[in-house]
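FW: tagging you since you asked about this chain on Friday. Here's the raw sequence from the shared folder, copied in full. Didn't touch anything.
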Amino acid sequence: MPFLGGPELAKVYKKAKAEGFALIANNFTEPNVLLGLFAAYQARKSDLLVQVTGGAAKFAGGGNALAGLRALSRYVQTLAKEAKIGVFLNLDHVTPDLVEGFVPPALAEGLCSSVMIDASELPFEENVKATRAVVEMARPYGALVEGELGRIKGVEDEVASDEAFYTDPNDAVEFVDQTGVDLLAVAVGTEHGVSSGRELKLRVDLAQAIDAKLRQAGLERPLVLHGASGLSGDQVRALLRAGVCKVNKDTTYQFLYARTAAEFYLGNRASVVPAPGVAFDPVTFEAPGSQWKPDKKLFDPRVVGRKIQEAVNLVAQQMIDQVGSGGKTLYA
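HL: got it, structure written out here
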């Protein structure tokens, strides 16, 4: 299945909105998380939406965000050709300062299916202006645009907020009307980073009110939930019933990556790390005064990489069950 764009992604969201399920938007920075996701989504026959932030693209490009996005997107597109599901890529949390040199070439080169412009730190009118400008950029290419109204507490990539500000339903109507966005990210009590759903003051009622106001105004849109890592299945399903059709996941995969690698290397420390006092030279493979040598069967990065892929695959399938997207692919 070839990599798909905005028009096809819009069909998936329309089906999700009508049937009460959601797409998980899965952030990734490197291959092991991505390969685990491809395995999970093909196993569950769910269309796959991956996300790349400006920071992730910058990391992948050795400091050059556009180069990194090209590399990551083309990797996704290459894998998509062999997949039996629809595969999409969203540019996540593009801040206004990054737009000019990042979004136009990404659109022109077909590197993304959609763009999330995050101008939520700006006053309302400036947020509208910045968001509408990206909508106008994206329209000729058929790419979807997600805007954000309200502020989510915590740190995500290079976006940070010490305080949370809930989205006002009336402001949401005005924002969608003035910007023309295809999706709306709302602040209803979730947080970026490590937070358990039980710790949050989740406002399902507010999501319901926003969804109802938009429908009454003839501006119904899929709602987006940022900071969704840590929520229980019941919390997620309640928000789906309130109009949420896109659920972002990043912190979960970061933790799985680190924990899996840590457990593996700690369990095999003696075969990978020389004992205290042993000076092993990685160029000559010599350790004066010691017979110690590392075990290549354990330090080959592909060994821990496969374990990371397995961990991501397992948890991604569990989260697919949470949002109900299994078996819902439109493109099998």
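FW: The chain has one domain: 6-258+301-323.
HL: agreed, and Residues 6-258+301-323 form a domain with the TIM Barrel fold (CATH 3.20.20.70).
FW: great, closing this out.
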